[in-house]
Amino acid sequence: FLLTIAFSTASVIDVKCMVETLKSTELNRNFTFCVVNYSLGIKSRVAEVNLSALNDGVQFQDADIFYLPRGIDKKIEVLHINNSKLKEIIKEDLKPFSRLIQLSIHGNDIEVIEGKLFEDNTELEVIILSRNRIKFIDSQAFDGLKKLVNINLLDNTCYSKNLSTSELTEDAIK
After folding, report:
1. Residues 35-78 pLDDT 10s
2. What is the pLDDT at residue 73?
């Protein structure tokens, strides 16, 4: 399986993507992932990937992507960006993924969870934000997520829960 990354400088980097079946323990279900587990060095918001809909999800592991690349297939249900130096995630990054049911942004450098970040991802059931540097979570960040059953915020040493939404229960926040 081949993944192509195009930068705004018109240079193209070809990257290999391993296809693996992984089990989501939170959803107790198997998913087929396109796994990228080496440094891509994406340090700009203009990086774009060309990824077909052959898989349920995409997993970037140790990929050195400071920003989520554009062009990931909109039909994926699971997106994992783990230990990849991701600096921020904004609403526009997640907007294309209306079918997303699990999002894992574990072990990155995220500091802020903006308001209505997941507004276009109403199918989300699991959000994993553990081991980041979260300092602020807007009170409207999780509004509208009626299917949400698990939010993992473990190991964010400096976060403050500014959550006033009645849609979340204490059991949903770990």
Report:
1. 766 565 655 444 445 455 457 888 888 878 888 877 778 888 99
2. 80
Measured over the CA atoms of residue 42, residue 45, residue 47 and residue 51, the dihedral's sign is: positive
The amino acid that residue 74 corresponds to is: K
For residue 12, the surrounding DSSP H or E stretch is strand 12-16
- pTM across the whole model: 0.76
C-beta pairs of 154-160 under 8 Å, 24+ apart in sequence? 154/130, 155/130, 155/131, 156/129, 156/130, 156/131, 156/132, 157/133, 158/133, 158/134, 159/134, 159/135, 160/135, 160/136
Alpha-carbon Rg for the chain, nearest whole angstrom, is: 16
* 171 φ, ψ (degrees, to nearest 5): -65, -25
Residue 101 near residue 122, CB atoms below 8 Å: no
Maximum C-alpha span of the chain: 48
